[in-house]
Write a structure and sequence with these properties.
single chain, mainly alpha, globular
């Protein structure tokens, strides 16, 4: 599935997740928390495809990581007081993004499996026991990752759902080719629905 497709599907999953979160007693309370929530959703929606730095998406991601780190270093050296204002948000962002730096470099393998979701869940349990991080950030992150796996599960190639225990690729009974007219039409429909939903919530 194309990156634009994963983004559209990821944003949709974020909206749906945000709609059901109040039922579990967790919800972003401020606009900044909502923005961070969707940031993690969108990162999660692209996460499984950045497991190789040699891919186009991977190159952009690792370049972005370096730019972000250089920016953070510059702020630390020249404007430390400004960083203190958002210390908690930065701490949350850093620890939730840490797994991105230790990913397996092999396209559509470990990062496209249930095992990957389990590892992310265990990591969340680990850091939650040490730092008080609101659970809805991680829920948004997982919603994005799950949307990615569902999207690729519907492609002709499929995904190795049970990797590394079973290396066979599985796919949905209805599939489409990456970059096909069917996928582009799906992206358009999802984008229009996302826009309609946002407008309906505001007005």
């Amino acid at each position: 599935m194309m990156a634009s497709g994963h983004q559209a599907l990821g944003f949709t999953s974020g909206l749906l997740t945000l709609a059901i979160l109040p039922g579990f007693g967790v919800m972003p309370d401020t606009p900044l928390e909502a923005v961070l929530f969707f940031s993690f959703v969108m990162i999660g929606s692209l996460l499984p495809d950045i497991d190789t730095p040699h891919s186009k998406l991977g190159q952009k991601f690792w370049r972005g990581i370096m730019i972000t780190l250089m920016f953070a270093l510059g702020m630390y050296l020249f404007a430390p007081d400004y960083l203190d204002v958002y210390r908690e948000e930065l701490k949350i962002f850093v620890f939730l993004c840490l797994p991105l730096l230790i990913m397996v470099k092999s396209h559509r393998k470990m990062t496209h499996s249930i095992s990957f979701l389990v590892l992310l869940g265990l990591y969340h349990m680990l850091i939650s026991g040490v730092w008080d991080i609101p659970s809805f950030y991680f829920i948004g992150f997982i919603a994005g990752v799950l949307s990615h796996l569902i999207g690729d599960y519907m492609t002709k190639r499929g995904i190795p759902v049970f990797y590394p225990f079973v290396k066979k690729y599985f796919r949905f009974f209805i599939t489409f080719r990456t970059g096909s007219l069917t996928e582009k039409l799906m992206i358009l429909i999802l984008s229009m629905w996302n826009l309609w939903y946002l407008v309906s919530q505001v007005f």
